[in-house]
Amino acid sequence: MDGHFPSLRQQRSLLRALYRWHLTHARPLPWRGETDPYRIWLREIMLQQTTVAAVIPYLERFLRRFPTVQSLAAAEESDVLRQWEGLGYYRRARNLHRAAQVLVRAHGGQLPSDVATLRQLPGVGRYTAGAIASFAFNAPAPILEANTLRLHTRLLAYEGDPRGAAGQRVLWQWAESLVHAAATLPESSPAAANQALMDLGATVCTATAPDCPACPVQRWCGALRRNLQHELPRSPARRKMTHVVEAAVAVQRSGRFLLRRRRPPERWAGLWDFPRFPLDEVPPVAAALIAGVQAQSGLVIDVGPQIAEFVHFVTRYRITLRCYAATVAAGRVTPALEHAWVRPADFARYPLSTTGRKLARLLLEGRDPG
């Protein structure tokens, strides 16, 4: 252990104060007290880069459709993606599906209880493995996510980059030391300590306005002693946003619209979408639309009007998506393309990107595409 950490006696005192606070200040999460490994695994994967409020309805819907590891493993990937639609970061859903198949094939459909084996599953990193081991099996496994990273950085008054290699090493060691100390307390446990630390970071030791007078562990906070609580953690340099313009084309033939399944390495691989591509804003736009659709599908189109425009963000990109109507003028769909001609009433059967779903709703509502 790092010699700069508080002693075991101090850690135990900190945890006792935290435990007393948590008895009356725990967040009212719907999964409070949940110990089912499958449900915890789904929840923690969904919570990666997604807020609790956003996850709750998706988790409930996902569990209704896939109540067991076996049902998830047996599902079609397209069905899994459809249930995930709207949460973003679709690689998480594909990894969930793959991991469920591994669990059924190699582990009898059961989640392992140890961190090392859990981390061998697709999409399960150190945090997720620790959360499953801790919350489902009460193992002394550390957890380091956004809230606890901020809390631990302030407790230790760590002034380096907490997301860099050195910072991660220090913070994981400290988190591990704390959770092992929790395992020695009769009134607490690793699971209870991890949940309390996360709740404290989420509600008191917040990013912009830490409520230090209300903090039950202020006595042990290095940042507060040095008046650095508003400066730590050090903020990473903001990445410059790149602005791009793309086109989506609703190609119609006999009342049906062309959807294509996106393929690796395209963004949102595995989802279905309307023909979509970068748009050169230099006139004539119609020529760019004709060329883009032909390159993706083999069809020649007659371009109609622009029917919608959406702005959305993907990592460091600000994307303006301009949506156009079109009809087929000539040609056949490229044989190798996985595609479908779909009536608006059937769009719900296909997992679409968020913007693809918005365009599909416009078409379903009967907005004139031609």
List strands and helices in order, with pairings:
Elements: H1 8-25, H2 37-46, H3 52-65, H4 69-74, H5 77-84, H6 91-106, H7 115-118, H8 126-137, H9 146-156, H10 165-182, H11 190-203, H12 222-225, E1 242-253, E2 256-261, E3 272-273, E4 276-278, H13 285-297, E5 300-314, E6 317-330, E7 339-342, H14 354-364
Parallel strand pairs: 1-6
Antiparallel strand pairs: 1-2, 1-4, 2-3, 2-7, 5-6
What does it look like?
The protein has 370 residues and is α+β, with helices and mostly antiparallel strands. The chain has 2 domains: 8-225, Orthogonal Bundle (Endonuclease III, domain 1), CATH 1.10.340; 242-364, Nucleoside Triphosphate Pyrophosphohydrolase (Alpha-Beta Complex), CATH 3.90.79. The chain is built from 14 helices and 7 strands. The protein has helices at 8-25, 37-46, 52-65, 69-74, 77-84, 91-106, 115-118, 126-137, 146-156, 165-182, 190-203, 222-225, 285-297, 354-364; strands at residues 242-253, 256-261, 272-273, 276-278, 300-314, 317-330, 339-342. Strands 1, 2, 3, 4, 5, 6 and 7 form a 7-stranded mixed beta sheet that branches. Strand 5 (300-314) and strand 6 form a beta hairpin. Helix 2 crosses helix 3 (52-65), helix 2 (37-46) packs antiparallel against helix 8 (126-137) and helix 8 (126-137) crosses helix 11. The longest helix is centred in the N-terminal third of the chain and has 18 residues, at 8-25. The model has no long low-confidence stretch (mean pLDDT 94). Adenine glycosylase active on G-A mispairs. MutY also corrects error-prone DNA synthesis past GO lesions which are due to the oxidatively damaged form of guanine: 7,8-dihydro-8-oxoguanine (8-oxo-dGTP). This is Adenine DNA glycosylase. InterPro entries: DNA_glycosylase (IPR011257), Endonuclease-III-like_CS2 (IPR004036), HhH-GPD_domain (IPR003265), HhH_base_excis_C (IPR023170), HhH_motif (IPR000445), MIG/MutY (IPR044298), MutY_C (IPR029119), NUDIX_hydrolase-like_dom_sf (IPR015797). GO terms for molecular function: 4 iron, 4 sulfur cluster binding; 8-oxo-7,8-dihydroguanine DNA N-glycosylase activity; adenine/guanine mispair binding; metal ion binding; oxidized purine DNA binding; purine-specific mismatch base pair DNA N-glycosylase activity. Residues 46-203 form the HhH-GPD domain.
